[in-house]
Amino acid sequence: MHKLILWGAMALVMVSCTKPKEQKPPNIVIIVSDDHTRQAVSAYGSTIAQTPNIDRIADEGVLLTNAYVTNSICGPSRAVLLTGKYSHKNGFRRNSDSKFESDQDQFVKHLQAAGYQTAWIGKYHLGKDPQGFDHYEILPGQGYYYNPDFIVKDSGRVNRTGYVSDLVEDAAENWLDRREDDKPFCLVIGHKATHRTWMPDLQDLDKYDEVTFPLPDNFYDDYEGRQAAMEQDMTVDKTMILGYDLKMYAEDTKDGNVSRLTPEQRAKFDAHYKPIHRELDSLNLSGKDLVEWKYQQYMRDYLATAESMDRNIGRTLDYLEAHGLDENTIVIYTSDQGFYLGEHGWFDKRFMYEESFSTPMMMKYPGVIQPGTKSDAMVMNLDIAPTMLDAANVEIPEGIQGESMLPVLTGEEKQGREVLYYHYYEVGEHNVSPHFGIKTDRYKLIRFYNQVVSWELFDLEEDPKEMHNVYGEEHYQKVQEEMKVKLLEAIKKYEDTEAEELFHEDISSTEIKRK
Ligand code: SGN
Ligand code: CA
What's residue 413's pLDDT? Predict the structure, then answer.
């Protein structure tokens, strides 16, 4: 009974401000992919990929052209999404050794308290104990592409036959079918695509066979003046493995994904990759020819893996329409971070450089956000939690560090953020040195520490590909000082005491601390 009163009160408040005039609070669907980057989304102007279903969300709402993450890696990014707090506040700094304390405050818990039904379906990657969800069906850890296991709330581990993107969507629709339809819902759909090792649905394997992809113009970056970029281990050339990543397997592969295939599925898989393998053997490539061959194969697998996800996002949107839910449902599409598609010679993410610091983000909110809107406001994944609470007319708790995007997206406020703050912590795989920094509309300042100790400053207007570190250059002295002031302000604003200590350390020259 009291929930009904609450909703009545909410409806009244909503009529009197910019919120929709519907009587009911909006449903929420948040679709989070894994490593799917803007360069591979046609709504962002990608010419190499077509993502018609993802684009539908932008067409019917807003495309955010300046959306960024606070820490470019999977688990940490999801923890930020749920808590609306930076990694140093929510405790999940690294995939490698952090534990997500799911008893902490999360926006879904507030939605639950306000009468929402909540569910997380698909890749979660924050352990096995989600809280704040009435239902979950999550992939254990990274999960598998083919015939994956799911951990189902109250039932435990189950194995399902099929391709992961289809199975995640099936489970999401099953939950929607079963929900109590007199209550609003918040559903998070976590896709596994397009994570390494880019395993496409078998029906999509040949999709990009005939395409030759242009090499990014900084593919052969020499990393001059950027020591951390020099030290990384994530190049197509040296790090990407022909067998493991590009499926040029010897017969006795131990790869977890491939060994899960049924004999029938394996036959289709082999029918695609074996001729490519034979061709590779016959070409006898080396040097640049081999690197560029790897790049083409990487791109084909990556984009083919996105196909099924895009198709299944189309199913989500169709489901909402078919059930008359589309007019009162917010749909957000985002990734846990961006990814390198050969820029700087790389795959993977982690760096605060544009390709992995940014993330695709678009949102439809019928009646509130004008279809076909493009916003260049600087927003972060940190803002999703408060935005959803704002949309549901639920009070945004004190500790949340993000800001609701709604005032900017509805035109109520003109200006978004002026400064974006970033902090990456992981030490290990891919050897990217920890770093923190800020970005403004024109400049980016980064402080690397722990493995590489250095400063980097980029003028994004002059150097959008971040090839020229101007830190210490005479011409940029004033900008450098101003950016440092802004960085310290951001550190203090978000109470990142570890970064504050490092900020004050006097470092005169670049240092490398090899493990
Ligand atoms: C795995 C991948 C890495 C990737 C991390 C983090 N290696 O460890 O290449 O950077 O995940 O990705 S793999 O051989 O297991 O594919 S994240 O999206 O989970 O953060
Ligand atoms: Ca990821």
Answer: 84
Is residue 21, in this structure, part of any structural domain at all? no
The pLDDT, as a whole number, for residue 23 is 57
pLDDT at residue 415, rounded to an integer: 81
Q: Domain span at residue 252? A: 205-297
In the chain, the amino acid numbered 133 is F
Q: Alpha-carbon distance 435 to 453, whole Å?
A: 9
Eight-state DSSP code of residue 77: H
Domain count, the chain: 3
Please give the number of the atom of ligand 1 that sits closest to the Cα of 77.
Answer: 20
| Token pair listed for 223 | 């990393």
Tell me phi and psi for residue 409, to 5 degrees. Answer: -75, -25
Residue 425: inside a domain: no
Residues 394 and 439 in one domain: no
Residue 426 inside a domain? The answer is no
Q: What single string gives the DSSP state of each residue in 453-486?
A: EEEEEEETTT-TT-----TT-GGGHHHHHHHHHH
Q: How confident is the model at residue 409, as a pLDDT?
A: 93
Domain of 98: which CATH number? 3.40.720.10
Same domain, 164 and 290: no
Are 372 and 325 found together in one domain?
yes
Q: What is the pLDDT of residues 501-512, one digit of tens each?
A: 999 998 877 778
Residues of the chain with pLDDT under 50: 1-18, 20-22
Q: Are residues 194 and 214 in the same domain?
A: no
Tell me the chain's radius of gyration from C-alpha atoms: 23
User: Angle, to 10 degrees, between the axis of helix 52-59 and the axis of helix 287-322?
Assistant: 50
Q: Which ligand is nearest to the CA of 356?
A: 2
Same domain flag for 164 and 35? yes
pLDDT (tens digit, 9 = 90+) per residue, 329-362? 999 999 999 999 999 999 999 999 999 999 999 9
Residue 239 maps to a domain: yes
Residues 271 and 243 in one domain: yes
Looking at all shown ligands, the one closest to residue 424's CA atom is 1
Is there an atom of ligand 1 within 6 Å of 169 CB? no
**Confidence (pLDDT) at 24:** 87
Q: 34 CA to middle of ligand 2, Å?
A: 4
Task: List, for residues 395-422, the tens digit of each pLDDT value.
Answer: 999 999 999 999 999 988 878 899 999 9
Same domain? For 403 and 260 the reply is no
Identify whether residues 324 and 454 lie together within a single domain: no
Mean residue pLDDT across the chain: 94
Pairing between β-strand 185-190 and β-strand 117-123 as defined by DSSP bridges:
parallel
Atom 16, ligand 1: which residue's CA is nearest?
A: 196
Q: Are 150 and 157 in contact (CB under 8 A)?
A: yes
